[in-house]
Amino acid sequence: MASDARPFKIPESVLVVIHTPTLDVLLIRRADAEPAFWQSVTGSKDEADEPLALTAAREVAEETGIQCGDGTPLAAQLVDWGLTNIYDIYPRWRARYAPGVTHNTEHLFGLCVPDRLTPTLDPREHTDWRWLPYREAADACFSPSNAEAILLLPEFAR
């Protein structure tokens, strides 16, 4: 009989700051958190050897419907910023990881889209979206590391 247990999450993830050339930033609201939990696209690797750019493109597609993987018009706009954050996993989500895992390594990416696109959300994961100027977006983020990444946007935007 097959097991219904979900595999543990890999404690290595991406954070993708989706933005316009004028530095407006897309934020999405998590469905499994309090109403003020606004964030950029985030997600863990599916396999330990999954390339980070593939993880980033997959998560952007899953969470917003925006296609930026290889062969798409936005592929060249997905940029690895070469920065990582290591942070404590919130206790409420630690059960998703193997016993004893308390930290996650997050890799930062940016995705420049031509204009304020309308995302397609999976209501099981996210309940709302909004575009904000980057400083306002940073202020609206629940996660300090997400806010810090957004404030770096002028350095990394093309």
In short:
The protein has helices at 52-64, 134-140, 144-151, 153-156, and strands at 12-19, 24-30, 38-39, 41-44, 78-88, 103-112, 126-133. It is α+β, with helices and mostly antiparallel strands and 158 residues long.
Layout of secondary structure:
Layout lengths: L11 E8 L4 E7 L7 E2 L1 E4 L7 H13 L13 E11 L14 E10 L13 E8 H7 L3 H8 L1 H4 L2
List segments where confidence is low: pLDDT < 50 over at least 5 consecutive residues: none
In total, how many beta strands?
7
Any idea what the radius of gyration is?
Answer: 15 Å
Termini separation comes to 52 Å
Q: What structural category arises from helix and sheet content?
A: alpha+beta
Q: How many DSSP helices?
A: 4
Largest sheet, if any?
4 strands, mixed
Mean pLDDT across every amino acid position? 93
Broad shape: globular
Portion of residues in helices?
10-25%
Salient structural properties:
globular; 20% helix; 158 residues; four-stranded mixed β-sheet; three-stranded antiparallel β-sheet
Can you tell me about this structure?
The strands form two sheets. This protein has a four-stranded mixed beta sheet, sandwiched between helices. It has helices at residues 52-64, 134-140, 144-151, 153-156; strands spanning 12-19, 24-30, 38-39, 41-44, 78-88, 103-112, 126-133. The protein contains four helices and seven strands. α2 packs antiparallel against α3. The chain is α+β, with helices and mostly antiparallel strands. The model has no long low-confidence stretch (mean pLDDT 93). A hairpin with a 7-residue loop joins β2 and β3.
